[in-house]
Amino acid sequence: MLKDKNFLNEDNRNLSEVFRELQEAQKQNIELYNVTNQYKNTMHNNYEEINENKLNTSTKKTSSKKSSKQSYGPNDIYPSADLKLSHIITGCSILVIAMAILFPKNTSFKESYAKVEEPESITEYELNRHRLNMQNIISENSDMDKVKEQVVEEREVAFETTYTNNSTRPKGEEIVVQEGALGKDSVTAVKTYENGNFVEEIILGKESIEKPVEKIIDIGTSDFLAKHKVHLEDTMYLIDKANLKESADDSSNDVAEIKASLDVKLLELPNEEWCKVSFDSVEGYIKTSQLTSSHTTPNIVEKNRIQRILIKVNVDMELNKPSGLTLNDYKKVFTSLPGDTKKIFQDNYTVFYNIEKKYNINGIFLASMAIHESSWGTSQIATEKKNLFGYGSYDSTPYESSFEFDSYAEGIETVAKSLVKYYLNPSGTKIYDGETAAAWYYNGPTLIGVNTRYASDSDWHKKVYSYMELLYNRL
What are the residues facing 146 on neighbouring strands? Predict the structure, then answer.
């Protein structure tokens, strides 16, 4: 039964309100049913009472006939007819009162039952734009506000990270030795949602698809490496001259002697006191306290460069190779030489440097040879002919037979070309200007080899070498 025509059209109505209205309607129907039954019972009782009265009346009439006759006038009302009409009126009154109570003015039969059957009312309900959302009503009023679902998902599995101490790395340094990788599992789970929000899950089972790969990180513990900011395979330098040992023991045999500032390659670090190094392909052990680094001693690199040049200086060194000195080195070597009173060599240090680069000849050797032959540029041939080498002279007529040049640079370059072509290189060696070495007087690219055919003095190579050591040591 509908309360009014907007029974299904009201906004903000949920299922609970609908149920309550239906219950109210049901109660009203029950009350109507009870009133109707009461009316029926009353009518039945009245009917029986009327019959009983009729029976009594009939009996009285019979008795009266036997005793005496009673007559009724035309205006008299029979008792039985009067009783029947009163009961009918009473029943109808009760029914009207019940209908007035149960069906107020706005809930008449006309506006309830009749309208349900009318097509116009049904059409009006169908056109309603505020139709009830039964899903929302059920969700809002249902006692089950939790939803569960079973899922099978592939999930990533985190990898573990392992840290290991490493005494061969600087203290505090972390190095990833092995990168980690995520694994993968197939997971069966029951998920619980409340009001659309995830609440919890229960894992029913897992199956490994791919195992994770462990991440490994080394943590350095060496104070020595941390102090000098170095690692294994890096270059270190000797603070002072030291001996390389066969083993990490003071009493072990010496393998080699290493001069100060020379570089070694760090190979192993068995402990914080000793380390294994390589010096020019010779391996051995040395105390860590005898080593330094470019970080700890910044100027050690320059010292090492000079030391590496000096270590190759000897009487048997090859002269058909550059000295390895820079232009600044030449300037340092030739500036303020004690024997260079006329400043000839100081003024021409760039000439010696450039000729070394151009003709691939040791410029220090060339300068030392000029110092020896000209007595520091003070000889008559050097002074008058700008010939620092006595080039072209013979023992019998040294001055007359010697060449004369317009400048010291011209004489230096002429002698350099002659040495490269005839004394320092084997026959066929490519030299300058597309030429090849003739090697007429070649006996090896050393001082002794040049001495063999260049000078009659057998000690000539020693004298020239002494000046070479003087110049090199000025580095």
Answer: 194
According to DSSP, the residues that pair with 192 across neighbouring strands are 148, 200
- What order do you get walking across the sheet with 215-222 strand by strand? 161-170, 215-222, 174-178
Strands 215-222 and 174-178: antiparallel
Q: Are 393 and 373 in contact (CB under 8 A)?
A: no
The distance of Cα 418 from the centroid of its chain, to the nearest Å, equals 65
Q: What superfamily does domain 144-218 belong to in CATH?
A: Resuscitation-promoting factor rpfb. (2.20.230.10)
Tell me, what's the pLDDT at 187? 94
What distance in Å separates the CA atoms of residue 386 and residue 374, rounded to the nearest whole number?
A: 10
pTM of the shown model: 0.60
Tens-digit pLDDT profile for residues 163-202: 999 999 999 999 999 999 999 999 999 999 998 899 999 9
Architecture of the structural domain at 229-307: Roll (2.30)
Domains of the chain, by residue range, sit at 15-60+78-136, 144-218, 229-307, 312-473
Of the given ranges (76-80, 354-358, 377-381), which has the lowest mean pLDDT?
76-80
